[in-house]
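Agenda item 2: S-adenosyl-L-homocysteine complex prediction
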Amino acid sequence: GPLTLLGPAPGAPSCPHGPALLFVKTSQGKEEGRRFYACSACRDRKDCNFFQWEDEKVSETRLAAREEYNRNHQPPFTHRQNVDRYKNFILLPLSKRRFCQECQQLLLPAEWEKHLDHQFLCDITTAQLKSPSQLLYPLENKKTNAQYLFADRSCQFLLNLLIDLGFRRVLSVGTPRLHEMIQSRVSQEEEFSVRSLLLDIDFRYSQFYTEDEFCHYNMFNHHFFGGEAARETCRKFLYEENGERVIMVTDPPFGGLVEALASSFKKLMAMWKETEKEGHDNKEMPMFWIFPYFFESRILDFFPSFSMMDYQVDYDNHALYKHGKTGRRQSPVRIFTNLTPSMIVLPEEEGYRFCTVCQRYVSSGNQHCEICNSCTSKDGRRWKHCVLCKKCVKPSWFHCNNCNCCTLQKHSCEKTDIGCFVCGKAGHKRSACPSLS
Ligand code: SAH
Ligand code: ZN
Ligand code: ZN
Ligand code: ZN
Ligand code: ZN
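Presented output:
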């Protein structure tokens, strides 16, 4: 059966990615077998094979070996060392600025020798240093850490939206490109007063940002690798001085466990809440959670105050694209937010329009259904209403009297009660989910 996350457990053992998470196999909603700990960040055993039964007795020798293993699997330089290296690097003349593509590392001249048979880039400009997401190659490990970078248009849109909404601080959780866009505008425009703090598990970014700009962070277990000092940096950043309002923007890997993400985001929200005693009352920290539309119900389970916006977030290197009728690529990725939907103004020049009944901007193809009394399309195409299902469904679906619901024309009329972990539908497992391939 599928794995169920029992959550971050107090006293959990640690792997190189911080405290492990507690899981159990379930069948028909019932726990089956022994509970176990596994790595929070890596879905693939090849990337981190940490495993321990919950009730397992671990010997002192094994504990010591594990601690040593965890130490050895930390990055070769500390963040502090990387900051110092950067300071030295920018003092070098262009001709001496090298970046090793194999080690993904800025090189100081004394280190060249060790990297002679590696591929490297020369003449690294200041502009390149200000766009690390272009210099570093996107991590491509499908299960663990696939990095999908925002297309420039989407990133501009997000930033302008935040500014128009009056936010002056952005907690960028797994959004290095948004962070980078903010940082480079800060250095170019005197008037620009937005600040950003990047939280990401990709430690390569510590080569380009100080401890006040980047925290090495695992969003599946809310682990700050930099310990209490990094946690304090984050806390300070969330403290809204001089009325500078904070918003969190996150774009997690889609293969990730929604419940683990939600648990961490709630902790970040709590951190924000604790920074100010009176002001926040019952408010939540404003947040944009960028995720595919087929996760809508999962996200709303954890954050009932959220709603999904129709805006299609575009990426430079995304495998999830389908080509729509118009020839424009259709992205399944949306913005989930706890801000009032009517405040999220979507660009009319890209075809979005305001529905006065729904009080939100919707895709041009998203027709208001009189029966549902809502703009019901999730994927941007025009959906059709099924009177038997009493809801709108995808245009390609038809009502199957056998299954007593709308589904694809081609389907086997078999009932399985185990739904796919990703989309919740029956008939396939998470690994074969059509919405991910
Ligand atoms: N669209 C974003 C990038 C999203 S890709 C942009 O352009 O800025 C997902 C991001 O989450 C990557 O930066 C990746 O390094 C980060 N990430 C993946 N797993 C993570 C984890 N466990 N904790 C924190 N960040 C993680
Ligand atoms: Zn691990
Ligand atoms: Zn409507
Ligand atoms: Zn309808
Ligand atoms: Zn139907």
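Discussion summary: The chain is about 20% helix and 25% strand.
Owner for follow-up: CH.
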